[in-house]
């Protein structure tokens, strides 16, 4: 009886310790990590559509993420990148057949092969296109049903939710290829700041993060706004997974980092200390991208992957399936 009693007490102590560990949220601020709806509820609807954002909001996502690109006439619209062939029905529009061309950019971000690029289309022309699901394994019944939204339409959606429910949904815009757009006379900075100011965003207290893979625009924005800025990180070498920018450098102008999620793990799949390094510099950590249907081999379930990262102390994460991420977070905390 003594032996079994000791085992039971040991189990109870272990469970209590796990509960206490979960109660002590290991984020930078001690607050629950935020769930960022990556391109909206893109696991269920075509990405970067109002329908995708609406569903993510209904699921309870803390933030919705629009990737921003610019049309020929200087309007910010939501697409993952400049190219339109994979995410819209542009190929079905014979009137745009002659717009297909090679990418004029060079380097790592160059799109190989012929494509249609957003900067070759006016907003009126973009509005004739309809969105498509990118992933073949995801629902296709919504293809062709939804327009490409402008950034202002997305901000209007967030305002409508606040008016109707009193809930403030965060916005997490990314400036896509800002250096390239600036080089062709479509600079993000002024229209982005003007649009955000119009909808009441201008300080660190506002529920917004502005993100980019290019430090130049964030360094400039840091001089012009108090809104929180996130430096997105990518490994120069996919085998080593070392951040392409030094954290001390990033801390001089940004409030956090958005690393590829694998950059937070060592070769054994365990915490490599990058989260703690970032926190020591006052940087939040928001890794990307978590996908239920693209699960790394080391995790048996999406829930196990989310829990692994939450226990490492990430301050938020980007997910195509916000409902799953929220369920795990709210179970832990």
Automatic annotation (TrEMBL):
Domain of life: Bacteria
Secretion signal span: 1-21
Gene Ontology MF, one: glycerophosphodiester phosphodiesterase activity
Pfam families: GDPD
Annotated GO biological process: glycerol metabolic process; lipid metabolic process
Catalytic reactions of this protein: a sn-glycero-3-phosphodiester + H2O = an alcohol + sn-glycerol 3-phosphate + H(+)
SUPFAM superfamilies named in the record: PLC-like phosphodiesterases
Enzyme Commission number(s) of this protein: 3.1.4.46
Cross-referenced PROSITE patterns: GP_PDE (PS51704)
InterPro entries: GP_PDE_dom (IPR030395), PLC-like_Pdiesterase_TIM-brl (IPR017946)
Family (UniProt): Belongs to the glycerophosphoryl diester phosphodiesterase family.
PANTHER family: GLYCEROPHOSPHODIESTER PHOSPHODIESTERASE GDPD5-RELATED, GLYCEROPHOSPHORYL DIESTER PHOSPHODIESTERASE
Entry protein name: glycerophosphodiester phosphodiesterase
Source organism of this protein record: Emcibacter nanhaiensis
Lineage, highest ranks first: Bacteria, Pseudomonadati, Pseudomonadota, Alphaproteobacteria, Emcibacterales
């Amino acid at each position: 009886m003594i032996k079994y009693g000791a085992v039971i007490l040991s189990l109870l102590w272990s469970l209590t310790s796990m509960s206490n560990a979960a109660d002590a949220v290991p984020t930078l601020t001690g607050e629950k990590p935020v769930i960022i709806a990556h391109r909206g509820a893109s696991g269920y609807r075509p990405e970067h559509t109002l329908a995708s954002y609406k569903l993510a909001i209904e699921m309870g996502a803390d933030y919705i993420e629009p990737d921003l690109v610019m049309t020929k006439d200087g309007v910010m619209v939501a697409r993952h990148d400049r190219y339109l062939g994979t995410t819209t029905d542009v190929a079905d529009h014979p009137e745009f057949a002659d717009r297909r061309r090679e990418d004029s950019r060079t380097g790592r971000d160059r799109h190989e092969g012929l494509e249609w690029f957003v900067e070759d289309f006016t907003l009126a022309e973009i509005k004739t296109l309809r969105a498509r699901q990118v992933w073949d394994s995801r629902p296709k019944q919504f293809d062709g049903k939804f327009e490409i939204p402008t950034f202002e339409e997305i901000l209007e959606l967030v305002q409508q939710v606040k008016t109707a429910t009193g809930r403030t949904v965060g916005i997490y815009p990314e400036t896509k290829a800002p250096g390239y757009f600036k080089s062709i006379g479509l600079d993000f900075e002024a229209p982005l700041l003007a649009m955000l100011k119009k909808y009441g965003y201008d300080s660190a207290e506002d529920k917004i993060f502005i993100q980019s893979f290019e430090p130049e625009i964030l360094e400039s924005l840091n001089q012009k706004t108090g809104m929180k800025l996130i430096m997105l990180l990518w490994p120069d070498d996919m085998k080593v997974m070392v951040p392409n920018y030094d954290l001390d450098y990033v801390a001089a102008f940004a409030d956090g980092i958005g690393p590829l999620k694998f950059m937070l793990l060592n070769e054994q799949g365990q915490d490599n200390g990058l989260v703690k390094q970032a926190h020591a510099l006052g940087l939040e950590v928001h890794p990307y991208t978590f996908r239920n249907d693209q699960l790394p081999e080391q995790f048996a379930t999406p829930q196990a992957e989310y829990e692994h990262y939450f226990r490492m102390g990430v301050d938020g994460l980007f997910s195509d399936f916000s409902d799953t991420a929220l369920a795990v977070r709210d179970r832990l905390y």
